[in-house]
Every structure is written in C-alpha cells, then in structure tokens.
Amino acid sequence: MSTELRWLEGVKVLDMTRYLAGPSCTRLLTELGADVIKVETPPYGDPNRSTRPRINKRAGTHIQQNRGKRSFCVDMNHPEGAELIRELATKVDIVVENFSPGVLKRRNLDYETLSESNPSLIMASVSGFGQTGPLSEQPCFDLIAQGYAGLMHMTGEPDRPPMFVGFGLADTNAGAHAFAAIGHALFNRERTGRGTHLDISMVDALFHMQDLPVHAESMTNGEYGAIRQGTNFQMLSPAGSFQGPQGWIVILCAEAQIGNLYEAMGKSELSEDPRFQGNPARLENRSELTSIIEEWMSSFSSDEEVLEALQKHRVPCGPVLTPNETLSHPHFVERGTIRTVQDPLLGEVQIPGFPFKSSDPLPEDSYQAAALGEHNREVLVEELGKSEEEIANLESSGVIASKPH
User: Fold this and answer.
1) 217, 226 Cβ separation under 8 angstroms
2) Which position among 93, 171, 204, 343 bears the catalytic label?
3) CA 61, 67, 69, 71 torsion: positive or negative?
C-alpha cells in the first residue's frame, strides 16, 4: 500500500445524490481519497441499486458509481432524519446533491440553511437546468438536456430525425464539471476561508462543449445554418466514417495529412487531381473521394490491415469500437482506461478507469460498494456521537434503515 498522502485525504463529503449526474461527481472525489458519506433514502436507497444487469442483487451501475462511499440510509423526509443530515453538514467540507431545485429548501437542507452553521461549506447542486432561470423547476433527464443544448440537432443524418448520443453524456459531463468546480472552490477556500454554492446545470455543461455552431450562427446572422452532418464532418473532407472490410473506420485529414492518405492508398496522383486540390474542392467532390477511399479499403481482408496501412503513413484514423471491444483493447488496458474490479457479491466486473493520469501517485483502487445503510452506526457514532440507545430509537422509528445487499 502506498504511503503517499491521497490528494483529498481528510476531506469529508456529504453525498446526497442518486442516479448518475451526482454520483459520477462524488465517485471522482472518492477516488482521489475523499471520505464520502452517501445519504440514501429508505427502503431501497439509490435507484441505481435496482438497475440491470444484476448478479446476487448487485447492480453494475451502482457498483461503478458508488464504490468506496460509506452508505448512510436515513429518511430525509422525517424531521429527525433531516436534522441528522443538518448535523452531518456541520462536520463536512463538501455537500453534493442533485435533487430538483426547491426539494432541499423545503426540508431546510439548502445551502443557505446549511452554511449558517458551516460558513466554509462548499455545496455543489447538479440539476438539469440549474437553480435559476425560467426552466429551473422543470424535470430534466439526459435526453432532454441533449435536446436543449443543441446536441441532438447536430447528431444524425441531415434529412432524418435528430438522434441522441447513446450514453449518459449530459449526466456524466455535468458530474465532471461539478468535480472540477469543487476542486477550484476548495482552492479558493484555502485563500479566503469562505465556502460557496456551485450551481451546475446539465444543459449548461453540454452547451459549453459547443465549438463552431454557436459563434458561427452569431457571426453570420444565422446564415451558417448548423445541421446534422451524418457520417461526414461538415468542415473537412475526407473526414468522417468510412466503410471498411468488416466495420466502420474514422478518418480525418486536414491539409497537412491529405498527402499521407494518398500515399497510403498508393494514389499519389490524386494530389494533382483538380477535384481534390484544396479542402473546398474536396468538400464539393466528397462523394467521389469517399468512393475512392472505400474501394481501396475493400481490397483488404480486415479493418486492422487498413488501419495498419493508414497508421504507417501517419494518417489520423481509428476504428469505431463497440463498448465490448474496448474491454480487451491493449491501449485501454495498459492505461487503465478500462479496469477490472472485484465485488464480494457480484464478483469480477470491468468498469471505466479514473479519467486522468498524474506524475504523482493516485490512490490505489481497493474500493467496494457498500450495502444499503452499511455505515449507519459508524456515521452516527464517529461523526455525530450518538449513543447506542439513540441509534436503536432511530432504527425502531424508521428514521434509519439497512439491508444486507
């Protein structure tokens, strides 16, 4: 075991999150060494505990997002339960929540209330539309955020309905933004001693990823007309998805790489073809160039052979991998982008690794997902100084609960 100090060792986090956007933030804090106390609501806890697939009543989604967190199962709708959470908030550095705006305020668990007793508290609220604005109280899920942020408008074929990205991009992106904001809030607190309330919106986080469309529409008074690009990247040719011998291969060549592509295909004469001289010409004649590239690809027996030929000439390219194919990809395995973890009930499962590397050692990965309410007594005794009699009363009145799985 490494003796190095964990980056967030000694930092306590009260995790009042569920589903994906909030837990994906506190998951990252856990992996940097923070002590994360996850508040779960009886009788079932985080809804992710019941998602499929499950083995021995253990859900993979819950394990992926909540390993290493202490589970404190308390009914925040009960006055005594809400009071316990308020007490805990005086003992922690950070609170993270992803309830709809107003839910915590109605229980006196909002930042204004909690910070009265803990002025140095940093609270991150992750929601669909944010804590303010005309849409703030509207329900929001990942796909709705993708629609509002312009992402769906830009995804799919131009003449077909807009499509959503096939995983929780808005949720996890908001979680990563919250994680980053918390780090900077901690740094600012070191200098000022003050806490703060961070308002993280799924829509804001997705919209921040916009590159060309927003400013191009603004600069051209709407003449630019951003639209779905299908399998082709709108600004460059060749750039997009190309049919290989077995599947799809992505190529993107700017002017500096186009000659490399022609050499890889053994068609250097294309550099003198007026249809393909300069990006504007290649865009105008995109379909002809695509046919030439795909015909060349079809002369190979496998996608891997195509990629080797392209990579040998330093043509920017890559396969379109399925999630299953990433599990054993050498690059993913060596960098820890994919990792295998052990769970006492589920067994061995592969999950995404920690998303950044550092020259300093990061905490070793020996985390496990807690059973529901597994740490009730530990939290109540060590953090709040409750007696066994008080704990028994809380259990008998249903304020706290636990389950073995």
Assistant:
1) yes
2) 171
3) positive
Cα separations in angstroms, 349 against 54, 204, 212, 260, 354 = 11, 33, 39, 41, 15
Whole-model pTM: value is 0.93
Q: Which of 369, 367, 378 is nearest to 400 (CA)?
A: 378
Q: Which of 145, 139, 171, 137 is nearest to 18 (CA)?
A: 171
Tens digits of per-residue pLDDT, 69-122? 999 999 999 999 999 999 999 999 999 999 999 999 999 999 999 999 999 999
R_g (Cα) of the chain, nearest Å: 26
Has 171 been annotated as catalytic?
yes
Burial of 142 by CB count in 10 Å (0-12 exposed, 13-18 middle, 19+ buried)?
buried
Contact 400, 74 (CB under 8 A): yes
| Torsion, Cα of 328, 405, 125, 154 (10° steps) | 40
For residues 15-41, b (16+ Cβ closer than 10 Å) or e, as one string?
bbbbbbbbbbbbbbbbbbbbbbbbbbb
Q: Cα(193)–Cα(36) distance, rounded to whole angstroms? A: 21
Q: What is d(CA 168, CA 362) in angstroms, rounded to the nearest whole number?
A: 26
Q: pLDDT category, 1, cuts 50, 70, 90?
A: very low
Residues in the chain: 405
Query: Is there a contact between 96 and 21 (Cβ–Cβ < 8 Å)?
Result: no
The tens digit of pLDDT for each residue in 194-210 reads 999 999 999 999 999 99
Strand partners, 136: none
Domains of the chain: 12-208+356-396 (3.40.50.10540)
Cα dist. 103→16, 109, 251, 386 in Å?
A: 12, 9, 47, 27
